[in-house]
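queue> holo job accepted (EPU)
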Amino acid sequence: MKLSDPRILSALPELGVERVGGASLAERTSLGIGGTTDLLLVRRHAALPDLIALLRGAGVAYKFLGGGTNLLVKDGELPWVVLQLGNQEPGVRLEGNSARVDAAADLGRTVTFCAKNDLGGMEGLIGVPGTVGGALRMNAGAYGTQIGSYVREVKLYRSADSRIETLWENQISFEYRHTSFAPDDIMLAVKLELPSKPYREIIEGIRVCNEKRRSSQPLNQKSAGCIFKNPPGGSAGRMIDDLALKGFSVGDARVSDRHANFFVNAGHAKCADMLSLIAQVRERVHAAYGMELENEVILWTQ
Ligand code: EPU
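queue> job finished
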């Protein structure tokens, strides 16, 4: 979508919002799939309520993009604009065992920055790609760690109230790859409370997790991480693998040979290829196990 409303276009500079015309979502997502639209880079959190009010007033649909690492986007000219937060400086501010982290900060860098300051706990999250805001929204987790366990406060744009608010931990629930945030809430910053740990110990934990991840996941291929959530007590990857579906493809969308719950873009996969692969694998799992796998990947395919 190309923004053309003169009221919006003229308001962008004073809101500190940069417009990137014809931005490619294929270039901004780890799957490397997706069409083009206008991208609005929001440099000041305080500008969000006014910007969103303008878009809503003009009937312009929008979506909010974090790191793009858990996302499948449709091809072609997209029917909505995309908002993205610019990084705030500093990305992380420490105070005792508290870390105040900007939602646009890179999750991995945040984990290592905290480690250098003898704050641990998040070692398992080290190889999870994406932003802190994205990890928060999904309650990202790996190797026994979930980011939600460390959250004390979240600053967010609350869509229901059209304003920026702060929620305390007792106002948010974090479950397996699920949170109580509304789908159109926008994470802005988070305060984490992290346990003190010597740097060397944290680095050793990080090394072990990195090794496990390298040996079991296709890190050098384009993917969105795990496609399906694990069913209670089970592993979607193992179930798909047991059906001998590794390497099963639709066009260039392919079930990874390394981890069967990672579907990779092995070349120039189209969104329709990936959707068809997801549907066919889900069907095969349903036929074999009588169980409907739920997507973990977020779809912007309508
Ligand atoms: N397995 C297979 N074949 C496969 C994949 C896995 O047999 O192709 C077996 C493994 O050998 C293991 C079991 O299934 O015995 C579980 O596999 P793994 O340890 O790789 O964990 P997972 O349940 O498949 C989850 C998360 C990952 C996270 C890892 C490590 C989900 C959907 N996936 O995977 O998260 O990195 O644990 O903690 O919860 C993601 O969220 O995108 C993601 C990749």
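queue> The chain has a mean pLDDT of 97.
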